[in-house]
Write a structure and sequence with these properties.
By secondary structure, the chain is an alpha+beta fold. The protein has a single domain, classed as Beta Barrel (Elongation Factor Tu (Ef-tu), domain 3). It contains 3 helices and 8 strands. The strands form 2 sheets. Strands 1-2-7-6-3-8 form a 6-stranded antiparallel barrel. It has a two-stranded antiparallel ribbon with strand order 4-5. Strand 6 (99-110) and strand 7 form a beta hairpin. The protein is globular, with a radius of gyration of 17 Å.
């Protein structure tokens, strides 16, 4: 982990508070309106031009899971009503190599600080990389998802009152 910290470009400095480790739960934990990422000063110049993008990808270290998962198949979000599918067919945070990837709205840049919306990483999470979201390369209009994922999204909407 020490080597990873040396390679990280920044840290989530404001946003979702880190939960008590005794309350670990697979799946989404909701989002806060905004989060702040502080990029190491050595990389500040590398951010030049990022403010011209409305959205960016944030790659981050999922540090809440130290051991690789034992199960190769899981029920998405641990929900028994969802089918048993391969781990790689889910967005479970418990990964063989725990890297998080989130597309977020970039609200502001001030020097080495980025204010974003939609980040699902916790405060003090290491940020590994930032990449611009590209409509032409990242959006795939013909993308298909399994039926169970559509059902899961309906459950999320109902739980959120949407």
């Amino acid at each position: 982990m020490e080597a990873l910290g040396e390679r990280a470009i920044g840290v989530v400095s404001r946003g979702r508070p880190r939960p008590d480790p005794s309350t670990r739960r697979a799946g989404g934990g909701g989002e806060v309106d905004t989060a702040e990422i502080t990029i190491d000063a050595a990389w500040e110049e590398a951010l030049d031009g990022i403010e011209e993008f409305s959205h960016i990808w944030v790659l981050w270290w999922i540090d809440r899971f130290d051991d690789p998962p034992k199960a190769r198949c899981v029920h998405p979000e641990g929900r028994a009503e969802m089918p048993l599918v391969g781990l790689f067919a889910t967005r479970s945070p418990h990964r063989p190599f725990p890297i998080g990837l989130t597309a977020v709205r970039l609200l502001d840049r001030a020097g080495n600080r980025l204010v974003v919306q939609g980040l699902d990483a916790f405060v003090d999470t290491l940020v590994l990389d930032i990449k611009p979201y590209l409509r032409r390369g990242d959006m795939v209009p013909e993308a298909v998802v399994p039926v169970w994922l559509g059902r899961l999204w309906q459950i999320h909407d109902a739980e959120r009152g949407g």
